[in-house]
Amino acid sequence: MAKTPPPPPSKTSSLLPLLITALLLLIGAAVAYAVYAVAASVAEQTGRKMERRNVVVTRGGMKVGIKEVGSEREADRTQSMLVKAWNYSSWPVQKGGFWGGSKDGQGRGQGGGGGGGVGVGR
């Protein structure tokens, strides 16, 4: 009882693993290209936005441009911030100080501001 040898594999069954491998490689290449295209697009858009804000990234490093701000404008901004800080601050009620505060603590008519001078507490 001798066993008969199995039939030889057909050409399609021997090419099937090769076709599956090629298909997987093609899908992987398509995904890699899509990732590369999105990354390049994001890098280009970011570069354009940074250039509008005077920031340039090169291979040698990053260069930041400085916008000219006039000294008068800078002084105006500083003064504005100081005035806002002064207006939003609260001072303790001064009762009769160097600035002629009244005995009821109303100071120079500022409504409880006290005039800001150093007073002697009575």
Report on the structure:
This protein is mainly alpha-helical and 122 residues long. Helix content is 49%, strand content 7%. The protein contains 2 helices and 2 strands. It has a two-stranded antiparallel sheet with strand order 1-2. A hairpin with a 2-residue loop joins strand 1 and strand 2. The protein is rod-shaped and about 120 Å long. The protein starts with 10 loop residues before the first helix and ends in a 34-residue tail after the last helix.
Key terms:
122 residues, mainly alpha, two-stranded antiparallel sheet, 7% strand, rod-shaped
Order of helices and strands: HEEH
Described by strand count, sense and barrel closure, the largest sheet is: 2 strands, antiparallel
Shape: rod-shaped
| Tally of DSSP β-strands | 2
Strand content: 5-15%
Percentage of residues in helical conformation? 40-55%
Query: Structural class per helix/strand content?
Result: mainly alpha
> How do the strands line up in the largest sheet?
1-2
Q: List the uncertain runs.
A: none
Mean pLDDT: 78
Spatial gap, N to C terminus: 127 Å
Radius of gyration: 40 Å
Number of helices: 2
